[in-house]
Amino acid sequence: AYGGIADGMVNSQVLWVGGGGNLLLRTTGTGLPTVVTNYTAPPVNGGAVLDVVMDPEDWRIAYILDSNGNVFRAVSDNAGTNVAFTDVTGNLGDVASSLRVLEVVRIDSNLVLLIGGRLGVYRALNPSPDSVWTELGANLANAPVNDIRYDATDDLLLAGTFGRGAWTVENASFFLLQNPVM
User: Fold this and answer.
1) Tens digit of pLDDT for each residue in 26-44?
2) Which end of the chain is more exposed for a tag (fewer CB within 10 A), N or C?
3) 100: exposed, middle or buried (Cβ count in 10 Å: 0-12, 13-18, 19+)
4) pTM value?
């Protein structure tokens, strides 16, 4: 994930990167990002990074999907020297498997975290340690989702699947905030 906004200021130099089993972060400059050492250490014990997305309103907040099926909320200081982690995996392992990709959507004061897996798209509203993940929609294909993108300008959600094409949801913000299908 690269380039973000915080406190109304654009930071085109920020990078959150997964590589070599580590999480790396660069907050300024043009050099290489540095390893976030506490990501792989207890109590986090994060696995290889599969995907990283930033909060669209604050680059200091990122969500990380690891190879163990865990999702973490990372909060950095401005310098990137202190990063705190919260496990927001919740019940995800009970409802989804073979996780691949994350997307984060801000709708007014709500944050919706989306994850693509073996059988579709799942969501958590305002993720926390007790996150409740539910399948998004009843009409999306039960197919491996390899990419998810949200276009705030058009309020359009796009899910790219393996073998079943790409699916779009118009007026996505309405559906993302609806009571989940249980």
Assistant:
1) 999 888 999 999 999 988 9
2) C
3) middle
4) 0.91
